[in-house]
Amino acid sequence: MADRVVPSAVDAEGHVFASLRLVLLGVTALVQPTLGVGPLLVHDHPAALAAFAVPALVTALCAVWVLRRKPLPPPLVVVGAVAVLAASAVATDVLPPDAHFGPTHWSFGLVGWHLLLLLPDRVAALLAAQAAHVAISVTQWLLAGTPDRAEVGGAGVVVLSVVSFQLGVLVISRVLVRGARLAAEVAAERERAATRAALAEQWEQDLRAGFAGQLGTTLPLLADLADGVLDPRADETRLRCALAATQLRRLFAENDDVPDPLVHEVTACVDVAERRGVVVSLAVSGAPVPVPTDVRREFAGPLAVALVAARVRARVSLLRGDGEVRVAVVADAGVDVGTATGRVEVECGTYGRHTRMEARWRTS
Fold first, then answer.
1. CATH 3.30.565.10-classified regions of the chain
2. Which of 10, 68, 293, 315 has its CB surrounded by the most CB atoms within 10 Å?
3. Over the stretch 28-40, which tens digit does the pLDDT of each residue have?
4. Does domain 231-362 have CATH number 3.30.565.10?
């Protein structure tokens, strides 16, 4: 399965905020000269000019990160928010008393867009900054003179329209963020489901390959029996059939979900021998240790051969301790299962009518 990159919920939110800031940068850059240049020409005050330059500088600094779709540094956010609020207060302070919340009060409508540009991903801070902006502007208006009822109504309409429109942008941004988060979660869940399906398919293929490998010795035996090449009454044929049955029984046990797979597979081999009438005693000592599947298969090979060769009795011992796992078999059979040195070391010796086999694997 080809690798696919699924964005997380955090990545999706970052993408939304990066796109939103890009739009707000354009709005702020367009709104500032539209709202501010005309009033500055009418009220040519040095403080107003300085107040107009501060938000423009903040916008220019934000553009350095916004155009690269990078999050704004926290120091820039804090300093920028304080700077534009202070600039708004200065610009409002030099207005004539009758110009508050009017066409020449450019800072009131502009600063909210700067705050949106700086704080779209910090809702609490944005609301607090907007509230401070409105409170400062209203306080300065009241200190400039006593407004009549008509002026109060007009100011209320301006405040409500400007603030509600800008907060509407905030609400839309939260809806977009929530949608992006849900989409990312759905995509991640689909990816997890696809991964689980791929793992299940791979496990099934591995299982089939394992069965095919084990059946590689069984199918020729069955073919020879069916074709009459082998005599079912012959001792060698019966031994081959018993060995194939033991291997298949252990293979079935290999895929069982049990606490101690090695003991489970050894018991499966013992069970096949007992079904043939062999009296088998099994002794297990030591605490369970994790044994890889391929190592368990190496243990099972010589164990199966020794048990299949047993005539009447066999004794199986599974010992775990001192950094190694050992499986030993003593059977009343004069067959040599051979020796091997690999991950599992096998030693075998024949003593009269008895065979002793020991397989050893070091855990470290």
1. 231-362
2. 315
3. 888 777 776 766 6
4. yes
